[in-house]
Amino acid sequence: MDKCTPESLLEGRNIKITRQRQIVLGAIIGTGKPFSASDLHDSLGSEMDLATIYRNLEMLCGEGIIRQVMNEKERQYYELACKHNPEHPHFYCNICGKIYCMKQDKPMRLKSRLPGDFTVEQTVLQYRGICPDCGKE
Amino acid sequence: MDKCTPESLLEGRNIKITRQRQIVLGAIIGTGKPFSASDLHDSLGSEMDLATIYRNLEMLCGEGIIRQVMNEKERQYYELACKHNPEHPHFYCNICGKIYCMKQDKPMRLKSRLPGDFTVEQTVLQYRGICPDCGKE
DNA sequence: GCCTAAATGCAAGTTGTTTGCAATTAAAAA
DNA sequence: TTTTTAATTGCAAACAACTTGCATTTAGGC
Asked: Does residue A16 come out as left (phi exceeding 0), alpha (psi in the -120 to 50 range) or beta?
């Protein structure tokens, strides 16, 4: 099972491999968890322009290399969308705002059809509540 | 089965019944569908201050009179949370951005527990794709 | 009718995200 | 390898949704 690298994710796609794309993808692959634009910006030591990060996130999302996992009022979260990371539910902590990935046994239903000619491209399941850390005290 | 009125929704709650609260709640009851702050603002002919609308939506949400149904990047959507309108999934059209309510036979699981001491307060199920209107052409 | 705490309107502020544009750069062509 | 050129970047300014501070108004108890 091949590991993801910035280059393997971009190859065969007519996308220029720039230094900043390698850095951004490296950071995305490095963290196993959902991330926001400003998470990336912070983890890269604020050295890369936020506009570049936003532009690349949009591009990667359009290419299906990453996917949006949660739209919080204050921020958009993404995660890597490669085959090692199939779609799954997420948990949002109402107190600390952290997002957790929830494993599930059965794959989520996708691209199904609902009554009345709705074409479903994505089924989103999320839980909201109190995470173990915040529930402790 | 009693109908909702602005007054019935607010009664017994130590909340001042102001003119603008009656108007806002009237509009919310009037439309059967999910709405955003600016939907309300528009439907009221832009006569009520947006700050007032935002403050009242927050208050109504805290009181459990309305609930958030979807956080889109650009807007928060709410719906009436009275007993005539139990929780249910929603469909978001990726093309036109419209939100549809999806009826379902079994009530959604709520306030359940997941492994590892996650306390679930809300289970959100949503579909994203192409709505009947946008699928037509 | 009077009084007070709470709600409103207005204007200014915040925050996440987007856009215009000149300078840089990857990579195709020569 | 050098040249060429179209795409990408960084910067600064713009946007849009939402929030906040504050003086004025108002609901509702007295």
From this structure: beta
